[in-house]
TrEMBL record:
This is Tryptophan halogenase. Residues 4-216 form the FAD-binding domain. Signal peptide: none annotated. The lineage of its organism: Bacteria, Pseudomonadati, Pseudomonadota, Alphaproteobacteria, Hyphomicrobiales. Transmembrane segments: none annotated. It comes from the Bacteria.
Length: 379
């Protein structure tokens, strides 16, 4: 059985940031990233918020990301609170320049940087379960259809919104909403005007965003609650196109592109784990807390918590106590601030007082918990 100092489950921005930071501080650590995906054509989440350049620079991969081709200096406009367009700064981030990127390529570039730094990466390896032994974790993975066991002293959960490892250890996701995104990526027509702005448009049952990616692809995403989407059958192409026609600014933009033939549904609920780490594990990125895409800050938060998670594990490796408690306080405080800001932004839109989507966001926020899961303890 292969044995590692640290096994990182999930090779998105959070997992790779954590790996890169660990290697920068302890080059001799034996690190594995187990990433479930092998190849995907398109992933949603394409705006890199202001401030991300410093984080990526610190991880030593900003030049690689730039080389991939970014759309720079992207502005953002919104019809929010009225049907008139106005400038809309990246709501939860510091002001400044944002970038649009090809998300599949971005994630792969970060993984390649980690690999070049000596991190072992298994693509197509899905974490299934974990058992705590005296000083190590026995992890069971599905590696391209084959069950493989590995041993690790420390584990990082970077599996995204599913928080697959943390929830298997009894940590619970506390949800704040039921948001989903139903989205398509289509090619812009050759004669389409070059407008790279992100456009956000509120509508009766949610809101739309549209954005242009490198390679002249237009992403169109309708954000609403899962029960509303289900009720209107809007996860299907026909009803989704009907919703699009109810958002005139976004529909006009869609007219400059080929017609969508397929739509995909992406979970987008906000949540925070009630237990972000244990004695020999830490959760980072969307696994530890996930934010509304309205913030355009998910990637940046993934990079930041990935770096912080590395320091939590480094202290645990060195036998220094207290880092886990600090991390927990920081994650909770950040999530509280995020929810306060989010509520203020949603309350700026008052046009559809009869709509369940907006009523939920104007009311005092519910804070649901998942039913308790089993706790397997920790070494
Ligand atoms: C509709 C929508 C639009 C968004 N737009 C933006 C945006 O414009 N800007 C922005 O900054 N953020 C955006 N986000 C959020 C952003 O995509 C996430 O916050 C970010 O991807 C989090 O990074 P992560 O590494 O934590 O998780 P992920 O990127 O989800 O990576 C997790 C990785 O773990 C892998 N994995 C999952 N389960 C397992 C398993 N069991 N074993 C092994 N591997 C596993 C997955 O394949 C994946 O590669 C958006 C999100 C949504 C839903």
């Amino acid at each position: 059985m292969s044995s590692y100092d640290v096994a990182i489950l999930g090779g998105g921005p959070a997992g790779t940031a954590l790996a890169l930071e660990l290697r920068r501080n302890e080059p001799d650590l034996k690190i594995l990233i187990a990433e479930a995906d092998i190849a995907t054509d398109w992933r949603i989440g394409e705006t890199l918020a202001p401030g991300a350049a410093q984080l990526l620079n610190g991880l030593g991969c900003w030049d690689d990301v730039m080389r991939d081709g970014l759309i720079e200096g992207v502005r953002s406009e919104a019809a929010w609170g009225s049907d008139r367009l106005h400038a809309h700064d990246f709501i939860f981030s510091t002001r400044g320049s944002a970038w649009h990127l090809d998300r599949v390529r971005f994630d792969e570039t970060l993984r390649a940087a980690a690999e070049a730094g000596g991190v072992e990466i298994w693509r197509g390896a899905r974490f299934l379960s974990a058992v705590a032994e005296s000083e190590t974790w026995q992890l069971s993975l599905d590696r391209q259809g084959r069950r493989v066991d590995v041993e690790a002293r420390f584990v990082a959960d970077a599996t995204g919104r599913s928080a697959r490892f943390a929830t298997s250890q009894g940590s619970r996701r506390c949800f704040a909403d039921r948001l989903v995104g139903v989205a398509a990526a289509v090619h812009l027509r050759e004669d389409a005007a070059a407008d790279h702005a992100t456009l956000v448009e509120a509508c009766e049952h949610g809101w739309w965003y549209s954005t242009v990616l490198p390679g002249n692809r237009l992403v169109l995403a309708w954000m609403s609650d899962s029960d509303i989407v289900h009720h209107n059958s809007s996860a299907r192409l026909g009803p989704w196109l009907a919703q699009l026609r109810a958002a005139p600014l976004t529909a006009a933009r869609a007219d400059m592109a080929e017609t969508a033939e397929r739509v995909f549904t992406w979970p987008a609920r906000s949540h925070c784990l009630d237990q972000p780490c244990g004695r020999s594990w830490v959760a980072v990125g969307d696994a530890v807390s996930s934010w509304d895409p309205l913030s355009s800050a998910g990637i940046m938060k993934a990079l930041r918590t990935g770096k912080l998670g590395a320091f939590v594990l480094l202290d645990a490796i060195r036998g220094v106590e207290g880092a886990g408690a600090k991390y927990r306080r920081l994650i909770e405080a950040e999530y509280r601030r995020y929810r306060r800001d989010r509520r203020a932004v949603y309350r700026m839109e008052r046009r559809w007082s009869g709509s369940a989507f907006w009523q939920r966001r104007h009311a005092a926020e519910p804070f649901d918990r998942e039913p308790a899961m089993h706790s397997a303890g920790e070494p």
